[in-house]
Amino acid sequence: MNTLQNVSSEFYRVSDAFASKGSGVFLVFILSLSTLAFASIILRVSSTDRVHGRLPPGSFGFPFIGESIQYYASQKDMDALGWFKKKREKYGPLFKSRVDGFKTILLDSPGGWKFMYSEFDENVIRVLYPPTVRDLTGPDSPIIKHGRVHRVYKSFLLNHFSGVDVVHRYIPTIGKVAVDHINSLWLSRSDNSEVKAQELLQEFTFSIIGILILGITDSSVLEDLRPKFEEFVNGFVRVSFRLNLPGFQYHRSMKARSQIHEILQRSLVKRRAELEEGKATSTQDYLSVMLTHSNEDGYFYRDAEIRDIMLNLLWAGFESTATTMTMMMMHISRNPQVYDELIKEHAGIASKKAEGEALTLQELRSMKYTWAVMQETLRVSPSSADINRVAMVDLEYKGFTIPKGYRLTAAAGQSQWNPDRFPDPTKFDPSRFVTKTGTRSIEPYIFFPFGSGLRHCPGYELARINTMTLFHHLLRNVKWTMVYLEEKCRYRFLFYPEKGLPIRITKCKAY
């Protein structure tokens, strides 16, 4: 690892040690500043690594912070033509920088993305998350595991919960929850009521995931969990002092994690007793599956592992899908022609069905334009603005050396916001992904809304089905307008409207 990463690791270790002993906030703060000053001195004295080869062109910027401020500023407002464009003009499509304390190689697209995603040996290139993410998701979280442990668990998840064939069995349940959700939280309000779309959509996706993984049908349980998850997800920031002391976000988020674990453990104990008494079945939800099924190695997951797995699934259900739906509503509201095309597509489906009849898999698959709108939403407002890996060995790419310990980054600004890949990238245009005759093919390795390779999102199909179903019923019954048409977006591990997308809603019968 390079000098800064070693110093940063020592800083986190020492500050955590002081925090755990209950030392004063001021003392820890002084320690933090002293350590960072020490890191800067070391970087000035030893500003280069011993690299056997030629690094890509670029600049590491200031000591410690590097170019992190400019990098994240370019993401805040989905700045497709700013920082990244200047970098490409100066250095070419492949360049180095320093972000989040890591010496980083910003990979070109499609070549660099293919180079990163096509490497399946995690002893060569490995997934990389910020320390706070590793702490909050937990030591038994599947996302931080590597090698066979990760592969075997992902296979278990796909076979028993989120694989395409499994998800299709959930379609009736998802449809019922969507209708109930719209009736109770949207149609029950008077016309021109103002609501925050993000909050309502989080409630929908949280209900779905709560039912599917824990069998929770009691809304009071979800109401108890939700504020804890709101505090929990506030800790998912890129650079954070991991100070487990009152008054710091890290402390609040770790406390919320403990509270969620307590609730999950109670559910686990209760379900185990129900299974023993014959009051629950081994396949009624994912919790039952995990308690009664071994993985392909014959291993049964421990309670601690199950808690972290459930926590991660609830987090994904609470945050990512709901945020994508929120951004879809924002883009639809700003583009009336997109709304009109959606109404046309869904009216055609509804015209062939009886009132109240559930959607079928075939009908969900026929929603080509809706899927294009979702894809364009993920292009403009991706679930993640970058995907990061770390080089476990020295790598060679296009005549350049990428040293061990360097971060490899596939960034939206290099591809889906790049006018060389998507002309007029700031324009919201679903026709990039669909034609009048069907789906439009996209050049390989320029757009990965759900990741790729070993880390392809296992919840991809569930997110797609949830979104298609919800919008079919929402478009039919509700019209909305944004309260703040020019509402800005923020980036905190995900893109989301900074005010939560306040909208005014009116009941309708569009089809």
Automatic annotation (TrEMBL):
GO molecular function, one term: heme binding
Cofactor dependency: heme
Keyword Transmembrane on entry: yes
Assigned keywords, A-Z: Heme, Iron, Membrane, Metal-binding, Monooxygenase, Oxidoreductase, Transmembrane, Transmembrane helix
Regions that span the bilayer: 25-45
Residues given in the record as heme binding sites: 457
Gene Ontology terms: biological process: sterol metabolic process
Domain of life: Eukaryota
Pfam families listed in its UniProt record: p450
InterPro entries recorded: Cyt_P450 (IPR001128), Cyt_P450_CS (IPR017972), Cyt_P450_E_grp-I (IPR002401), Cyt_P450_sf (IPR036396)
Family per record: Belongs to the cytochrome P450 family.
PANTHER family recorded: CYTOCHROME P450 26 (PTHR24286), P450, PUTATIVE (EUROFUNG)-RELATED (PTHR24286:SF384)
Name by which UniProt lists this protein: Cytochrome P450
